[in-house]
Amino acid sequence: MQVQSLEDLFLNGLQYVYDAEKQLTEALPKLAQACSTPELRQAFEQHLQETQEHVRRAEKLFSALGKQPETKPNTVLQAMRQEADKMIQMTDASPLRDAALIVAGNQVEHYEMAAYGSLRNFAQLLGKQECVQSLQQTLEEEKKADAKLTQLGESQINKQAAGGAAASAGGR
Ligand SMILES: [Fe+2]
Ligand SMILES: [Fe+2]
Q1: DSSP H helical ranges for the chain
Q2: What would the pLDDT profile of 21-75 be if each residue is shown by its tens digit?
Q3: In angstroms, what is the span from residue 29 Cα to ligand 1's centroid?
Q4: How far apart are the C-alpha atoms of 97 and 95, rounded to whole Å?
């Protein structure tokens, strides 16, 4: 499809984000399973439930536009998932791995925040008020998920990861 208007750009962005959300319903259980900190696992599991709702919300947005839900292969998300898989392979189950999973999670949430922030603004400009509210709601949930991951990292997990590294360096 040739993008020739803000409306086209809006639909295009929605197709990418719809694909991203669908990919994340597969990726988040893997991240949760790889965690050793229970609070981090819970955070990923809770955001999985929100993400399943994001998929449904995206579908409603398509129908509000009079379109069938359609994905556009989101290669940015594919690359982020591959990097997260590699990080799981390169680490043992430990706070260090958890610190790495927080980085991966923060990166995904920032990507989603950028996508939803733009889509919400496009919807405002296009006068699609029913879409604005839904996009705003998803944006807020992405921001909260991002903040939760950051808080878990900064309050405990990153320090434990540093402690583990220092202990093994000291032991040499
Ligand atoms: Fe999402
Ligand atoms: Fe998210």
Answers
A1: 6-34, 38-64, 75-90, 95-125, 129-152, 158-170
A2: 999 999 999 999 999 999 999 999 999 999 999 999 999 999 999 999 999 999 9
A3: 14
A4: 5
CA distances from 132 to 90, 124, 127 (A): 41, 6, 9
69: its two tokens: 């839900």
Closest by Cα among 126, 146, 127, 150 to 138: 146
Measure the CA–CA gap between 62 and 69, rounded to whole angstroms.
5
- For the chain, the structural domain boundaries read 6-162
Positive or negative torsion for Cα 16, 19, 23, 25: positive
What's the CATH number for 6-162? Answer: 1.20.1260.10
Residue 82 confidence class, pLDDT cut points 50, 70, 90: very high
Ligand 1 center to 164 CA (angstroms): 32
Whether the model clears a pTM of 0.90, i.e. scores above it, the answer is yes
Compute, in angstroms, the gap from residue 26 CA to the centroid of ligand 1. 12
| Residue 19 near residue 77, CB atoms below 8 Å | yes
How confident is the model at residue 1, as a pLDDT?
Answer: 77
